[in-house]
Amino acid sequence: xxxxxxxxxxxxxxxxxxxxxxxxxxxxxxxxxxxxxxxxxxxxxxxxxxxxxxxxxxxxxxxxxxxxxxxxxxxxxxxxxxxxxxxxxxxxxxxxxxxxxxxxxxxxxxxxxxxxxxxxxxxxxxxxxxxxxxxxxxxxxxxxxxxxxxxxxxxxxxxxxxxxxxxxxxxxxxxxxxxxxxxxxxxxxxxxxxxxxxxxxxxxxxxxxxxxxxxxxxxxxxxxxxxxxxxxxxxxxxxxxxxxxxxxxxxxxxxxxxxxxxxxxxxxxxxxxxxxxxxxxxxxxxxxxxxxxxxxxxxxxxxxxxx
DNA sequence: TCAATCACG
DNA sequence: ACGTACGTGATTGAA
Length: 307
Fold this sequence. Notes:
By secondary structure, this protein is α+β, with helices and mostly antiparallel strands. The chain has helices at 8-19, 21-24, 62-69, 88-97, 100-107, 112-120, 130-145, 149-156, 160-173, 175-191, 212-248, 272-284, 303-306; strands at 36-38, 48-50, 78-85, 193-195, 201-203, 254-258, 262-268, 295-300. It has 13 helices and eight strands. Helix 11 packs across helix 12. The two termini are 22 Å apart. 33% of the residues are buried. It binds a DNA duplex through helix 1, strand 2, helix 7, helix 8 and helix 11.
């Protein structure tokens, strides 16, 4: 196992950004930290959070986990419940492209990274090694961002030739995704914008630039924005549905945070079963696509263990 | 005031 | 031949 190396720079960042300021921001009246959610800041339709930003509370490093542990439910009778969409952006790509292989993997409930590795490396899912799954995961993520063979090579620390072979294999298996991506860029060139499933637009004035670097940037935006933006559409619809149902059932639990593909609730112990059912249903049924939306949920006393 | 670095999805 | 993975916010330190 590779140990997480905590450098002095990281400690300094954690202290100056979280450990020192957050305790001073606890509201004197209610004992809680309040963020602001901005609805008109991002290019894709995501929310952003500031003063303080509660969408970038640490979780990856060991010391960071200690910080996240400090976020707890409001009292004895309450727990934090975290509910996050599983692979929402890949499901959206699958649905928007209607790629038969990727749609099938999600419809059958397969582990998408293992399924991808099996296809790319011509193996059965059982034969896929950890490194192969990890490589497939990197490609799946890279696809969402319009990553090149060069970028994948750097990311995986392999040669450009090896990276190109993996990507070529990927598109041989998921050919309709390639068509979808090319089609999205072509449409962006004609229209000057791309749009999400709820028709929100992102304008791309540089999509026809004669400067290849500038144009390349806009092309990656064209690919990414409908995916990231549609995920934002879906969780926003879910939030409205959740709130409506919570009101209808007159619950005292509260929806307290949104972190892009995750909702966090402060749940009263007598409402746990109701909340689990209601939130799962609202999130999974926020939209109807050709692939199922699935959520994972956990309940705990603090945010680290609820995640 | 802004770029670099780091935190998150 | 070019550069090369999307979206944010906070802090720091140089200009």
